[in-house]
Amino acid sequence: MRDQRAWREVNRRNRDWLRPWEATIPPPTPSGPIAHRPTYRQMVRHLRAEANAGRMLPFVIEYQGRLVGQLTVAGITWGSMCSGHVGYWVDESVAGRGVMPTSVALAVDHCFRAVGLHRIEVCIRPENGPSRRVVEKLGFREEGLRPRYLHIDGAWRDHLVFALTAEEVPDGLLRRWQRARSRSTPHDNPA
């Protein structure tokens, strides 16, 4: 709850940057409930409840001591699947600095090593170049298209599915990302 002011400020400043990629509530149907965007407090309560139930891992992303984004591992399924999917957003002011690939790599390593998941998916709109570059840099496999997968920016939008399994990163995704980054830009800090 203490991140509310920083979270709101980052979201307000990045409204136009994030709008084309953020989930929206579809219009109500005659038989369906009228849904509304949750307040910050409602969102945090929902994230905590899902985390406590073992179905979600919500994270804020900090860079140089300030909140710059959010990453959520959601849809966690146990049993024979042991899978989840990652969603994320980042402040435009830090985009392109390796913040999001590093954050995704850290979250995936946590999921595979500490939590015990086997598979992680990331679903991205085909036209979202920056998000696609994140998973491409990390070596996620493209698996196909999910037509009209999520309601985004006021309409049902297609998404490409990218996935990774624990066996594909035996030394960890962060380590693989750091090695790849040091080969391409030896003067940059991988964090």
* Structural class by SSE content: alpha+beta
Q: What percentage of residues falls in helices of 4 or more residues?
A: 25-40%
Question: Quick check: average pLDDT?
Answer: 92
What is the CATH architecture descriptor?
3-Layer(aba) Sandwich
Provide the CATH superfamily. Gcn5-related N-acetyltransferase (GNAT)
Tally of alpha and pi helices: 6
Shape: globular
Tell me the distance between the termini: 26 Å
Compact summary:
The protein has a single domain, classed as Aminopeptidase (3-Layer(aba) Sandwich), CATH 3.40.630.30. 35% of the residues lie in helices and 29% in strands. The chain has helices at residues 4-13, 15-18, 40-52, 99-115, 129-138, 173-184, and strands at residues 57-63, 66-77, 83-90, 119-124, 141-152, 155-165.
Fold and architecture overview:
This protein has 191 residues and is α+β, with helices and mostly antiparallel strands. It has one domain (4-184): Aminopeptidase (3-Layer(aba) Sandwich). 35% of the residues lie in helices and 29% in strands. The chain is built from six helices and six strands; from the N terminus they run H-H-H-E-E-E-H-E-H-E-E-H. Strands 1-2-3-4-6-5 form a six-stranded mixed beta sheet, with helices on both faces. Helix 4 crosses helix 5 and helix 4 (99-115) packs antiparallel against helix 6. The protein is globular, with a radius of gyration of 17 Å. The two termini are 26 Å apart. The model has no long low-confidence stretch (mean pLDDT 92).
